[in-house]
């Protein structure tokens, strides 16, 4: 009986908390409508109201991201901010189709066993000492995150790292387990910024950029502009992990036996793995060579079509592997950002920020980067990009900053959350292992946050002008 009462009370409390959140969201919408904003048109005010509700829901995770996306797609036309025709036209942005194509392509990589084979081969080859093993996990997770969605890499490598840690004799609370799983999480987070394939936040940002200004960032440009930060942060991350590992005695005999056994289970490389590897190499080559002229999404769909034609992708598997809710969320975020621009709402927000009297483009850029880095610790990096980038682009126009630079100033820092599990699935997966405690994530992650911020500002100021990005 007492169990029933406790269950009823917990459910009632949960419902009450949710309704309090809904009331706060409604209050935010109403407050934005009645606040004095001289010169702001009705449509812009209504759009700002929807934006305020979306930011609150994204930040609190009161509703799942795809559900918030549906709510935004309902509120924009229902409130009268923009017409339904424009709302759903914005949703059909080319970036959404690139995201979809990239997600579909990741399915045969995982299903064929190619990614597992690569992971086991690398860890077995370079993991004969604790320091080398940690370095191989860090480097492998970073490299794979250049080509596969970061959360998929973390999920794929998790059981391998877990078995290696257990086979080494490490227990929860031990230093080796902590370092191994932080190497996995940090490698995924850092490496996912190298290309547009590491996470959907990059294509999302490009969609917002193109809708707002008409500017583009090519696949190759993105990698060239982001690479120094990735390399330097990987070096810093390895240094921190090496320091954490000192004084820990670990026997890797059991771990190496496990890796050898798993490699033997895989057998000879299959035809599906060979075809998948060839297709991915060809796809990346096309993205680099003709992605700007053909369109990244066109190349992605060409490769998806080939994958189905030659039989390395199966629709049943794709249905299970693709996160359709994420696709919905990104399309909705792009529609919201486009509405903020066309109604003048983004300009209105910019005018409010300009009231602070800041006159330095460098200072504005630094503030935007810091805001992106801070927001991503408390909400998903995609939500941080969707909330901040429209305002940042408006600021860039006012201060004469290259919109491509301000876009990178939002989306790359938004992919560098190292302190809280809510910021990225990779950290959440690491904590779920039982070998990593949240206080340790915060204590060591803050170093990467601070160093990442300083390195990014230095890179944008001194390196970007050398490679064609002057802001």
UniProtKB/TrEMBL annotation:
Q: In terms of one coarse class, where is the protein primarily found?
A: membrane
Q: Where in the cell is it found?
A: Membrane
Q: Which Pfam families match?
A: Na_sulph_symp
| Keyword Glycoprotein found | no
Q: Name one GO cellular component term.
A: plasma membrane
Q: Which GO terms describe its molecular function?
A: organic anion transmembrane transporter activity
How does the protein associate with the membrane?
Multi-pass membrane protein
InterPro entries xrefs: CitT-rel, SLC13A/DASS
Q: Name one GO biological process term.
A: carboxylic acid transmembrane transport
Q: Which domain of life is it from?
A: Bacteria
Positions of transmembrane segments: 20-39, 46-76, 88-110, 131-158, 178-198, 219-245, 298-316, 322-340, 352-372, 378-396, 408-432, 444-464
Q: Provide this UniProt record's keywords sorted from A to Z.
A: Membrane, Transmembrane, Transmembrane helix
Q: Which family does it belong to?
A: Belongs to the SLC13A/DASS transporter (TC 2.A.47) family. DIT1 subfamily.
Q: Which NCBIfam families match?
A: dass
- What name goes with this protein? Sodium-dependent dicarboxylate transporter SdcS
Q: Which organism is this protein's natural source? A: Planktothricoides sp. SpSt-374
């Amino acid at each position: 009986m007492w169990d029933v009462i406790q269950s009823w009370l917990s459910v009632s409390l949960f419902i009450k908390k949710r309704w309090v959140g809904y009331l706060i969201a409604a209050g935010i919408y109403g407050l934005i409508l009645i606040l004095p904003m001289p010169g702001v048109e009705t449509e812009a005010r209504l759009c700002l109201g929807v934006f305020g509700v979306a930011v609150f829901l994204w930040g609190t995770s009161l509703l799942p991201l795809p559900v918030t996306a549906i709510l935004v797609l309902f509120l924009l036309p229902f409130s009268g901010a923009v017409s339904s025709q424009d709302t759903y036209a914005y949703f059909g942005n080319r970036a959404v189709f690139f995201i979809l194509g990239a997600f579909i392509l990741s399915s045969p990589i995982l299903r064929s066993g190619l990614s597992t084979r690569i992971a086991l081969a690398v860890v077995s080859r370079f993991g004969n000492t604790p320091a080398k093993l940690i370095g191989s996990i860090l480097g492998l997770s970073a490299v794979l995150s250049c080509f596969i969605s970061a959360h998929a890499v973390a999920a794929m490598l998790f059981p391998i790292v877990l078995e290696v840690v257990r086979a080494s004799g490490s227990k929860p609370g031990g230093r080796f387990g902590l370092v191994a799983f932080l190497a996995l999480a940090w490698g995924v987070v850092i490496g996912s910024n190298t290309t547009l394939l590491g996470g959907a936040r990059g294509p999302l940002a490009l969609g917002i950029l193109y809708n707002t200004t008409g500017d583009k960032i090519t696949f190759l440009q993105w990698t060239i502009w982001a690479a120094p930060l990735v390399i330097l942060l990987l070096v810093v991350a390895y240094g921190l992990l090496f320091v954490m590992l000192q004084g820990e005695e670990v026997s890797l005999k059991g771990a190496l036996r496990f890796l050898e056994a798993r490699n033997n289970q895989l057998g000879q490389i299959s035809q599906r793995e060979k075809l998948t590897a060839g297709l991915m190499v060809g796809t990346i080559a096309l993205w680099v060579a003709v992605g700007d002229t053909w369109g990244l999404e066109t190349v992605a769909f060409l490769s998806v079509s080939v994958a189905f034609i030659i039989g390395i992708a199966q629709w049943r598997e794709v249905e299970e592997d693709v996160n359709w809710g994420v696709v919905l969320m990104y399309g909705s975020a792009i529609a919201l950002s486009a509405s903020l621009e066309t109604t003048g709402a983004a300009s209105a927000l910019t005018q409010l920020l300009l009231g602070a009297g800041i006159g330095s483009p460098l200072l504005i850029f630094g503030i935007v980067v810091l805001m992106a880095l801070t927001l991503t610790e408390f909400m998903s990096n995609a939500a941080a990009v969707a909330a901040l980038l429209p305002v940042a682009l408006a600021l860039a126009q006012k201060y004469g900053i290259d919109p491509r630079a301000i876009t990178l100033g939002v989306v790359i820092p938004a992919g560098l959350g190292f302190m809280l599990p809510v910021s990225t699935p990779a950290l959440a997966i690491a904590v779920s292992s039982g070998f990593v405690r949240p206080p340790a994530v915060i204590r060591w992650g803050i170093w990467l946050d601070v160093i990442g911020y300083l390195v990014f500002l230095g890179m944008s100021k001194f390196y970007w002008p050398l490679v064609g990005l002057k802001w």
